Amino acid sequence: MNAGEGEPLPKEMSMSIREITIDQLDAQQFIEDQVRSICATVGDGLAINALSGGVDSSAVTMLGHKALGDRLKTYFVDNALMRQGEPEAIVALFAELGVHVELLDAREEFLQALAGVTDPEEKREAVTQTFYRDVFGRLVKQSGAKHLLQGTILTDVDETVAGIKRQHNVFEQLGIDPQQAFGYNIIEPLIQLRKDGVRRVAEALGLPESIHNRMPFPGPALAARVIGEATAERLEIARQANAITEEELCDTGAFQYMAILHEDRVTGMRDGERDFGLQIEVRCWESVDARTATPTRLPWDQLERLSARLLAQVPGVVSVTYNIAPKPPSTMEVV
Ligand code: XMP
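Above: the input record for the complex with xanthosine-5'-monophosphate. Below: its predicted structure, written as tokens.
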């Protein structure tokens, strides 16, 4: 069952995972323990993992390579939902760290799966199924790997189990057996940590600050920032708006900032003519662990600069709003 479809699942499912808080975490010890555990589980077999460039999947990639070397195959799946220039930048960065990452172009497959899908949970499910069952299922079969390493963290499990949002990478806690559903075993070395713990581990693994201090980015990527259907054209609008928003707000020190493309069009005017145009919503969050968050009190000048760029540089945009609702009752992403 999907968390979004029915009743919240029993709390015991996430409570059975023992949390390691930031105060309890000894990063070096944690790395040693996880490397040993990955080695024990995989034995002399093969494992596979997907790197998105976020801190979670980056930390898992480094842990996996420490444990397995070449017996871990790492893929960056271009799902058409990534930020501007992201696939090439991440592959290049890991090459510098000595980790070979295979870039896989799966854009058409994801766009087809998302065609006509407007419901938020169905969108998340479409991304999940295309990724785990179709693209990854195929890769695993081709590679002969029996294990998939993945960067699920405790917050993903909590929110999925509570029925708030179906995080795309949570299965077992939903009663889904990945072995049965997808044909492989999932290893989750970060499942006891929250974001702050993962950042500390990532730093201890030698990942650069641009990664260990990286702003979170959701699994369903830009599909989580487009309300309604995520077509190639609408994703491109969201991509451009997010790139501008990241440039303009990077000095805020905020936990996370983003641009969202709304589904409704609104009346505007351009060059003296009525223009039924697009609306972009900007969100900028203060948070420690993403469980609760409050909007950053951005200076008006900064908001005006951002709005001017979005209006001038993203085709068709006639309205820019700033979200001032905290989480809860809002969530940080819009889908
Ligand atoms: P929400 O929108 O649930 O977001 O308040 C909380 C934090 O989680 C990120 N997020 C995700 N991360 N897979 C992820 O790995 C997901 O499906 C997902 N959905 C949201 C979001 O960007 C924020 O930092």
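Notes for the reader.
Residues 184 and 331 are 32 Å apart (CA to CA).
The two ends are 19 Å apart (CA to CA).
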